[in-house]
Amino acid sequence: MKRIVKIASIALILILAAGMVFAGGRSDGGAGSTGTGGGASPAPAAPAASAVSADSLPRRETLYYNGLQWGAPGGNNPYGNSNNAMIGGHRQLVFETLFIYNLLDGKLYPQIGDSYTWSGQTLTVKLNPNVKFSDGSALTSADVVNSYDLAKKYSISASGYWSYLESVTASDPLTVVFKGNPSKFNPKYVEVAISEHPITSKAYWDKQNLSSDASAMIQFVNWDVIGTGPYKPMYHDDTKLVIERVPTYWGQHSSRWGKLPAPRYIAHNVYKDNVSGDEAFRAGQVDMSQQFITQVWRMWEGGAPVKTFIPQRPYYFPGVIPMIIFNTTKPGLDDPAVRRAIAMSLDYDMIGENAMSGYTAKMVPSLMLPVPAEQSLIDADALRSYQWNGVDIAGANALLDRAGWVRGTDGIRAKGGVRLVFRAECPYGWADWNASLEVVAQSARQLGMDISTYFPEAPVWQTDKDNCTFDILMDSPGGAGAASPWTRAYAAMGSMDLPPVGTPNRVQNWGRWVNQEANQIINQLAAESDPARVKQLWTRLNVIYLQEMPTAGLMYRPWLFHTVNTTVWEGFPALNDGSNIPPTICCDGYGIKALYNLRAK
């Protein structure tokens, strides 16, 4: 039986809970089809791109972004440490996935794949027969199988899929069969795998000479990339990244979008910090902003044609929980009393109002977002005795006293020669995160800890995260997708798929915290269907989290900050417009459909 899976959408539930209702609407372009992909011939191809300089892109043909690219890109490899804003994962601009996730309705829609069918623990995907790479070669099931095999051979962010897959095989040129791991069956994570893993050309990889070392893929830059997406790389340097539309893009076929996306070029200038990006955005030099903007309403109050998807507070949908992640291999941070004390000292109100401009609900310590879909999974009453309300400096100090951490003459606590002196890091220029870590450092001083802040360039932060060479690091484990909140628990607490020490970790649990009971529960939740048992398991997992604090949530943040300036382009998706296009910056998941609705003024 064919099906398009529907799960509870945190965004939709939040809006409904606030008393707002999304208007219904038809989704055009075949994106909801489960057909075989047949139909009319492709629309006439657009003329080949002219020789346009990256410094003189035609403004009414170019969509400009900010907030995605921090520093020069390091390659075009969707599986590597490339620091490239336009490729990989949910993003569908250069590489595409089999299906695309819609944050609004929780469904998976066809992209490279046309349909999928579950039979027991086996999922079968039928591919669209019209798909071609940007070099004109046809995509087949061999390309799909190889794309998943690369994640099995090398240590990359998608390697965790193989803990829940037994095999990925081709039964014919247009059919791919995913067999779940019978000992760890996880249907939700398989659906994540088919909606987030970029598909690449097997012929391309067959020509490369990569070593068999597990970390070789991370370092491979892959500049001469080919994908199946509507864009291909055009230009990059330390200040700008540009991709250009593929005039022969297969998605013009009536089985998918029926036309080319509106922007001929998509560009991203590299700004040194949020302030510089904000100035360019306010001035109309940037059309789509995915960076934090302090008090965004001041932009339209000042006359700028700026809009958020939701026109009033909170302006953005909560989709992730940015956390401080503790390196539990570091002396001092290997003590749960120290980690929990730091969490208890946090001033959530200061973070929410000052650092986040009020774009968050009040933080309640747990793994869950404050939306009915996730709150219904736990027994909130059973968790209260493990939680704290607001800033609990007295309780945190008492906890440290009981754990034997004694203040020295300089006011810093120590035990066994270990002083509680740490460094907390996140990328430079990420204003809301930078401000949040300053609050963390300020709160810790009241506990007899010295936490300094460190804001390196984003590639350095990424490398520190991959190699566990940090003390305290800020990130948003799990993201949003078809398996939330399971992916958050897996990324924040799971250690079952950690690579060996010394091997870059792109998979999960960057602080290398290990708890076998947590692993067991996470594995059980993957396939458990009984609601009562699911609630019991989620409640117990949250108790372990609150006792051990391998991470500590700081705020509820949108998955993406979808803010637009309509000086040059109009037609961006908005609440109640009937399009069913989510606020995912016109390129992540089903948000890619927005590019086909844009119009230059």
Compile the SSE list and pairings.
Layout: H1 10-17, E1 62-66, E2 99-101, E3 108-110, E4 113-119, E5 122-127, H2 141-153, E6 165-172, E7 175-180, H3 187-196, H4 202-206, H5 216-219, E8 231-236, E9 240-245, E10 265-269, H6 274-282, E11 288-289, H7 297-301, E12 306-308, E13 318-320, E14 323-326, H8 336-344, H9 348-355, H10 372-375, H11 380-383, H12 393-402, E15 406-407, E16 413-415, E17 418-419, E18 421-425, H13 431-445, E19 450-454, H14 458-467, E20 472-475, H15 486-493, H16 516-527, H17 531-548, E21 551-553, E22 557-558, E23 563-565, E24 569-570, E25 599-600
Parallel strand pairs: 1-10, 1-11, 18-19, 18-20
Antiparallel strand pairs: 2-3, 4-5, 5-7, 6-7, 8-9, 9-10, 11-23, 12-23, 13-22, 14-20, 14-21, 15-16, 16-17, 24-25
Structural class: alpha+beta
Q: Based on DSSP secondary structure assignment, what is the total number of beta strands? A: 25
User: Which residues sit in consecutive blocks of at least 5 with pLDDT less than 50?
Assistant: 1-50
> What is the gyration radius calculated from CA atoms?
24 Å
Q: What's the CATH architecture name of the largest domain?
A: 3-Layer(aba) Sandwich
CATH class category name of the largest domain = Alpha Beta
CATH superfamily of the largest domain: Periplasmic binding protein-like II
Q: What fold name stands as the CATH topology of the largest domain?
A: D-Maltodextrin-Binding Protein, domain 2
Q: Count every helix, treating DSSP H or I runs of 4 or more residues as helices.
A: 17
For the largest beta sheet, what order do the strands appear in spatially?
8-9-10-1-11-23-12
